[in-house]
Design brief:
By secondary structure, the chain is an alpha/beta fold. The protein has a domain of 220 residues: D-Maltodextrin-Binding Protein, domain 2 (3-Layer(aba) Sandwich). It is built from 21 helices and 15 strands. The strands form five sheets. The chain has a six-stranded mixed sheet. The chain has a three-stranded antiparallel sheet with strand order 8-5-9. Strands 6-7 form a two-stranded antiparallel ribbon.
Length: 556
């Protein structure tokens, strides 16, 4: 979904900022709870509190520019009515998120609840510094939904646990209308099949050699093709070519051991092939500096002006109708076709990154601050936001007013927007969906379908594609194997301190060498490059740190 594209980018900021908080000492007032007198909750009773006029303050990144104040939204007012808790939302935009998140620990008064776009990597240090609470007891006594989720998702529990194996913070979780489940792959490689056909290419698009042949023929037979392959190899999202060689541009698992991809022999094979392609003008000349829409998609100028035949796209920019709807082109002859990542040998399974197995659904973190005076209520509210009832309120509103329920198990959509709320324009300013608790990635599909159908009717476009083209793209990109990523490792303070110095130098050297080598601007051999990483930049020390953290995570 479009929101998720932004969330992924912001999650990287959240990860990077956590390590800077160690020097921001803060002592919160807190509240007193007689834990010995409590019995763990098994379910929530609504409203969540008998206290009149109960309020909490919630801080989070919120990227809907059409809503200035969440409290003015009809569904948020209904949420307050159901829970008995008024939420004072502090929302920050995507452009200000990183800066304001970093300033939180030194603020005079912390909000009660803080939602981040990634789980904090070293939560123990943040708790020790005194501005975030250890939520382990709150989870035990006040968060039955969260406890149930963790009991069924051991991998998530391991990755969000502290070094001592305890879960001390909350999370935001991927789901659809029915369950917690990872969003299918909505980003992937696409080709301009209309241009390829014009170039006379009729072969398959499966292997690296196939893609090379297609790019070569397209370059020879099409005018204005300045960027046959439009890419930026420094981005994990769009380095799909590299995966055919069995390597990715970061730490990953190979033969059950941690390796640094840019130092592996397979990376040397890939970078040599890309140097060949670059020398034959098959790759965007400025691949090291070109931009992408939301960091992911090829820009309109590249697509609309027929400058590329192979680029990265998202699921709502494929086919013919969708590119016209979203302004990528006005040409009804344009056909953007989703394709799978290339493989080395015909019959091999393609691979993708940043996709997770269906049971893995962590999106971000949720934490109770040290200044919260009602931490029990905060925990109950956070846990209620992990319920299906809360999800329906956030993404659909009030039953009978904003949506109806279709109980047909074969129905395309379970919750159906009423006529007055079935488009983005009609919902604007009325339905606000902050990313907390249960993040429903599927909720927008219904709005997309209505928008597509309306555009086809309004413009008279004659084509066979439409909403199904979007879902077909998701199915094509999702039908690929997953690269085993290393997620949410917990480093000790000593490890983090050493990595902060060593890793920067290592990544800088790797990025510089990659650009120079592919562009033919250096004669340094791959073997010499790896040798410098090992001897001058202490690569093995970095790998050992990652291996130790990975072993700890899997031992819990």
């Amino acid at each position: 979904m479009k929101k998720l594209v932004k969330l992924v980018c912001m999650s990287l900021c959240a990860i990077l900022l956590v390590s800077s908080f160690a020097s921001c000492k803060k002592k919160g007032g807190g509240d007193d709870i007689d834990w010995d007198s409590l019995t763990p909750m098994t379910e929530h009773t609504l409203p969540l509190t008998d206290e009149p006029n109960a309020e909490l303050t919630v801080w989070l990144g919120f990227f809907d520019n059409n809503i200035a104040n969440l409290n003015s939204c009809e569904n948020i007012k209904y949420l307050e009515e159901v829970t008995g808790v008024k939420i004072n939302w502090i929302t920050v935009s995507d452009t200000e998120y990183a800066q304001k998140f970093q300033l939180l620990p030194v603020s005079n008064k912390l909000p009660d609840i803080i939602y981040t776009q990634a789980a904090m990597g070293n939560l123990d240090e943040t708790i020790k510094d005194g501005w975030i609470r250890d939520m382990s007891k709150h989870i035990e006594y006040f968060m039955p939904n969260y406890k149930d989720y963790l009991s069924k998702h051991d991998r998530v529990k391991k990755e969000i646990s502290s070094i001592d194996g305890k879960v001390k913070g909350g999370i935001t979780i991927f789901g659809d209308d029915k369950q917690f489940i990872t969003e299918p792959q909505t980003i992937g490689l696409s080709v301009r099949s209309d241009l390829i056909e014009s170039a006379g290419y009729t072969g398959e698009l499966e292997t690296i050699q196939d893609y090379y042949n297609m790019l070569k023929q397209s370059k020879a037979n099409l005018t204005g093709l300045t960027s046959p392959l439009y890419t930026n190899f420094n981005s994990l999202w769009i380095s799909s070519m590299m995966q055919a060689y069995g390597v990715i541009p970061t730490y990953h698992i190979k033969n059950n051991k941690v390796v640094y991809g840019p130092a592996e022999p397979e990376y040397g094979n890939w970078i040599t092939e890309m140097r060949k392609w670059y020398g034959e003008d098959l790759i965007e000349k400025n691949f090291d500096s070109v931009g992408f829409v939301n960091g992911l998609q090829a820009p309109t100028d590249i697509v609309a002006n027929n400058k590329s035949v192979l680029f990265t796209s998202i699921y709502s920019r494929v086919g013919t109708v969708l590119p016209i709807i979203y302004g990528l082109t006005k040409d009804q002859n344009t056909v953007i076709t989703p394709v799978k990542s290339p493989v080395m040998n015909r019959g091999d399974r393609p691979k993708i990154m940043y996709a997770e197995e269906p049971t893995y659904s962590l999106l971000g973190g949720g934490y109770i601050s040290a200044d919260c005076k009602k931490s029990a209520l905060a925990a109950k509210w956070m846990d209620f936001m992990l319920s299906e009832q809360a999800m329906r309120i956030l993404y659909y509103g009030k039953e009978g007013v904003h949506y109806t329920v279709n109980n047909d198990p074969n129905a395309e959509f379970k919750y159906v927007h009423t006529e007055a709320y079935n488009t983005e324009a009609k919902r604007r300013g009325k339905i606000g969906s902050p990313t907390v608790g249960w993040y429903n990635w599927a909720a927008g599909y219904q709005l997309e379908k209505v928008k597509i159908e309306q555009t086809i009717a309004d413009t008279g476009i004659t084509t066979t594609d439409g909403y199904h083209t979007m879902t077909d793209a998701v199915n094509i990109w999702s039908d690929q194997d997953l690269v085993k990523l290393i997620k949410d490792l917990k480093f000790t303070t000593a490890e983090q301190t050493k990595l902060s110095t060593l890793q920067t130098d290592l990544d800088t050297y790797y990025a510089e060498y990659q650009v120079k080598f592919i562009k033919g601007q250096t004669s340094e051999t791959f073997e010499s490059y790896v040798s410098k990483m090992k001897t001058n930049l202490k690569l093995q020390e970095c790998i050992d740190i990652y291996q130790a953290a990975y072993d700890r995570q899997n031992a819990n």
